[in-house]
Amino acid sequence: MPPLNATTLAEHAVPVPTYDRDRVRTGIVHFGVGGFHRAHQAVYLDELMRRGQAMDWGICGVGLLPADRRMQRVLQAQDHLYTVVTKHADGTREARVVGSVVQYLYAPDDPEAVVRKLADETTRVVSLTITEGGYNVDTATGRFDAGNPAVLADLEPGAAPRSVFGLVVEALVRRRERGVPPFTVVSCDNVPANGEVARRCFAAFATLRDPELGEWVRREVRFPNSMVDRITPVTTDEDRVDLARRFGVEDGWPVVCEPFTQWVLEDSFTMGRPPLEEVGVQLVDDVEPYELMKLRLLNASHQVLCYLGSLVGYRFAHEVCRDPLFASFLLGYMEREASPTLRPVPGVDLDRYRLRLLERFGNAEVADTLERLCADTSDRIPKFLLPVVRENLAAGGEVEHAAVVVAAWARYVEGLDERGGEIRVVDRLREPLAAAARRWREDPLAFLRRREVFGDLVDNPRFTAAYVNALTSLHLRGVRSAIGEVVAHHLPVTAPDALSGVDR
After folding, report:
1. 229 φ, ψ (degrees, to nearest 5)
2. Whole-model pTM?
C-alpha cells in the first residue's frame, strides 16, 4: 500500500482533505504537537477548511523536546498529513486524513526560525499543549519559577531562546518594535484558569527581561481561557497495523481517540480568529464553570481510577470502570465530593454528564492505559483533586473518597502492586515521594509532608485522619477493602439502576 503523503492522497479510500492544501496559509503556531492537539484543535480547523473556510488559519507546529524529533520526521515525510481514527464503543472505526497542519519546526535545530515565524504578522494565534507541568509554576508557591535552568539560560544576554517562554517573548518584542499587534496566546492544557496562568507565566518571564516589558505583556497580550476535552490514548504499533489492515493507510504516527469532543473557548482575540463556532466550538464569555466541571469530574476521576486500578493489577481504564465496586466508588467521588464544589454549568445536566463519563471511561475500544493516566501525578493531582479537597474542608464537605485516592497514590509510588508486580512510576518527584511513602509505618504522614505537592493539607486534622485510615487499610487489608468501606458508608446519590446504561 502507498505511504501517506500529498502525492498518494487521492489513492486512499478514507475521507481526505477536499481543499487545496497549497492554498492554506499559516495563521496559528502551536507548541506541543502530540496526539491530543492532532485529535482536537487540528481537527476543528480541518473541518472548517473542508467547508472552504479558514484557509489562512493553517497550523505550524513547533517541537521543543528531544522526543519531538520523531514527530518532526514523521510529519515531514508525510507532508504533514496524518490519520485520526475514532474508536466507537461498539467496535466500529472511523478514519480521516487531516491536513490543517502544514508546517513543523523543531526549535532546537533553529530557534531563530521559530522566532521569525512567531514574529511574522501572519501569525495571529499561538496555542499551547505543553502539559500541566509546562508552565513552570512552583506548586507550593503558585509563582513562576525564576530559578529554572532553562529560564535562566534564556535570560542570558545574546542567548538563543530555547524555552517556550523565551521564544514567545522574543517574538513579542520584535512585533512590538515593528508596530505589529501581539498575537493571542491560547492555552489548551488542563490547568485551572489556563489563560490566566499563561498570562502570569509569560508576563513573569518578560518581567525578568525588562519590568516594563512584563507590564506590556500583561496589558496588551490576550490569553483567553479554554476547556478542551477528548480522550486520546497513546498510539501503539497495534494501532498502526490496524489502520493499515482496516483502511489501507500506511501512517507513521496516526492518532486514535474517542468519539466525544468538546472545546469551550473564551471569545477574546487580538487579531481575529477562525469561525470555530461553525464546527461546534462553544465561544463564551466565562469558561470557568465548564473548566471546573471538566477538571474536577473528568480529570480528577482519571486520578481516582488509575492508582487504585493499577494496584489491583488492571491495565486499562475500561477494566476499572467495568468493576462494579470501582464504578460505585468513582461515582461516589463525583457526586459527593466533586460536584458540590461546582458552579452551575450553562446547558449541562450534571447527572447525565457524570454517567456519560462512566460510559466514556468504559469504552474498551479506546483502551486508555492506566500508566498514561498515572504519569506526572505531582503536576496533576494539585490541579485536579486537591482543590476539591480544600473546598470541601472549608465548607464542611466530605473528603473520604479523595483521601483514599491520595493514599493510593502513596501506595502506588512505592513501585509494587498488590501482587508484587513492578509499577513503572513516571514523575519528576518520583524518588523523594517514594522515599516518603515507604516511611508510612514510622510516620504515616510522611507522604503528606511533601509541601511542594500538598501544601498545608498535612496540618488539617480532618483530612489527615481520613488519609491515615485509608493508607492503613490499603496496606493491611488491600484496595477492595479500603474502597469498599467508603462505598458502604457513602453510597452514591444516584440510584444503583442508573448505572445500568454504563458499558460494563
Report:
1. -155, 120
2. 0.92
